[in-house]
Amino acid sequence: MKRSFRGMIGLGMTTALLALAACSGSSSGGDAPKTSPDGSAGPKEKVTIKIMANFSSADIAPADKAIFDKLEKALNVELKWIVPPSSGYKEQLQLSLVSGDYADLVMFPSETDESFLNAVDEGVVIPVNKYLDQLPNIKKYTYDVSWEALETKRDGKIYGVPRTSVARNDGFIIREDWLKNIGFQMPANREVTIEQFTDIMRKFTFNDPDKNGKNDTFGFAGYLNTTKMIDPILSSQFGNLGWQKTNGGEYAYMTPMYDKNSTVYKDVLAYTQMAFKEKLVDPDSAVIDRNASIDRFQRGMTGIRYEFAGNAPGAEKKGKELNPNTEISYIFIKDKQGQLKGVSYGTAIFGVWGVTNNAKHPDRALQVLDWLLSDEGFDMVKYGVEGVEYNKENGQRKYIDGVSAPWRKSIVRRANDGDFFIDAKLDEATRNKVKPWVDRSIETVAFSLDQGYIPPAAKEPKFMDFKLIWDETITKIMIGELPVSDFDKLLAQWYEKGGKEYVKQMNDYIASTQK
Fold first, then answer.
1. Terminal CA-to-CA distance of the chain, rounded, Å?
2. Is-contact 359 365, C-beta < 8 A?
3. Could you write out the DSSP letters of every residue in 348-397?
4. Which end of the chain has fewer beta carbons closer than 10 Å to its terminal beta carbon, N or C?
């Protein structure tokens, strides 16, 4: 059950409320401008837009201010920023909502965050549908799945603008120097079959790929994820694409993990179990976290690691500090049908910009975001302002030492723009090497239809208690302590412990999102 803002905050916070109110200002009047596709506008009267945001730094840097100066001139607005310390952002957000003295444009942590849902229910956050035709860049660079997720009440109204998170089907960084040492001929597109990938892991483990004469390497670098579970080595490659429409049967939508009539998820488990049994995986994978796994990869103990392609140059740089011969490249694994496809869960949203009922000019507030997504604005969002953050030499950007802009990449992002995540300070040759890998990871995404939704059944005590058994059993199957066949019994128990209600509720939710 949702609670109101006033039920969430105690009376003892009056002092904090007064302090927050002292930081705020008011919006002035003005005519609503029309925005062209390049983000330009021609309003007659200047207006003030108050924005509450969560950035790593509470103070605006000169390099960030240089971007906003250009924005303010282009749109004839004045931006007033409210940026609490990041560590206390959620508390300050709730305080502002309770006080009623909130900004025109507010960053909420997510579309499922309680503060956002309450703000929508109480009318604090208003629908943006009627403004979207004035926002060509926002419309162009937002995923459909994100708009669907922001139909919060399922009433056709869209409650906010997503800060887009680029959906990707990431592959693996790999020791290119080891590939050369084992004599593997990599296809030009760097896409290999499951069988080829398995062969590489075996040779990285048993064929002395670093040529040091010792049996001290492993093919794959695993680790415990944030839920303290080991991720399967391969998953989408066996057809595990999350919640999708079925071809008939008891349910209209199903995921292989919970499908009693499919072997897909058992194939996923069996492959990871094979790799552990053959000792192709770092034996410490079941006890170390991601940072420790990265360290072991850098030290040359493992040769393949799941990673975003844009991080490959940094991994090579770190590796060369320990071994100058280190070469890092990238690899994708095709599915059993020879296609490259991978699932993306969630809604491609990394925060929501909510327009509040305090905004006297909601259209002008939204045009701030639209301008930043325009060609002119987004170039500065990605690379900074020339002459402030970098200078051009022979057509190449040369970044100025000691200059940083911690805000510019935390406001908007374009859907399908992987270049955004590639370090702008890399030389052009390296960027051109990495960009095709990033682009390929974006163009091969298949969205799971669940949109990150968690059915109410998942919060029932019997379901939550059984999750501990589920996680433990799945882990034991993957590392080879239990046979894969034990999954059938586990799944049957899951349905008895609330899984049936979970699947039904998920089906009802997905059906409500389909148009």
1. 27
2. yes
3. SEEEEEEEBTT-S-HHHHHHHHHHHHSHHHHHHHHH--BTTTEEEETTEE
4. N
User: Alpha-carbon distance 85 to 104, whole Å?
Assistant: 19
Separation CA 442–CA 61 (nearest Å): 32
Question: How far apart are the C-alpha atoms of 373 and 381, rounded to whole Å?
Answer: 8
Angle at CA 237, nearest 5°, toward 514 and 464? 60
Per-residue tens of pLDDT for the chain, all 515 residues: 344 433 443 434 333 433 444 444 434 333 444 444 455 545 569 999 999 999 999 999 999 999 999 999 999 999 999 999 999 999 999 999 999 999 999 999 999 999 999 999 999 999 999 999 999 999 999 999 999 999 999 899 999 999 999 999 999 999 999 999 999 999 999 999 999 999 999 999 999 999 999 999 999 999 999 999 999 999 999 999 999 999 988 999 999 999 999 999 999 999 999 999 999 999 999 999 999 999 999 999 999 999 999 999 999 999 999 999 999 999 999 999 999 999 999 899 999 999 999 999 999 999 999 999 999 999 999 999 999 999 999 989 999 999 999 999 999 999 999 999 999 999 999 999 999 999 999 999 999 999 989 999 999 999 999 999 999 999 999 999 999 999 999 999 999 999 999 999 999 999 998 87
Only one residue has tokens 């960030």, namely 64
In degrees, rounded to 5, the angle at the alpha carbon of residue 235 between the alpha carbons of residues 442 and 468 is 120
Q: How many CB atoms within 10 Å of residue 219?
A: 27
The CB density around residue 291, as the number of other CB atoms within 10 Å, is: 9
134: tokens are: 């004035």
Question: Any residues with CB less than 8 A from the CB of 174 and at least 6 apart, and which?
Answer: 200, 303, 304, 305, 328, 329, 330, 331
Q: Which amino acid is at 296?
A: R
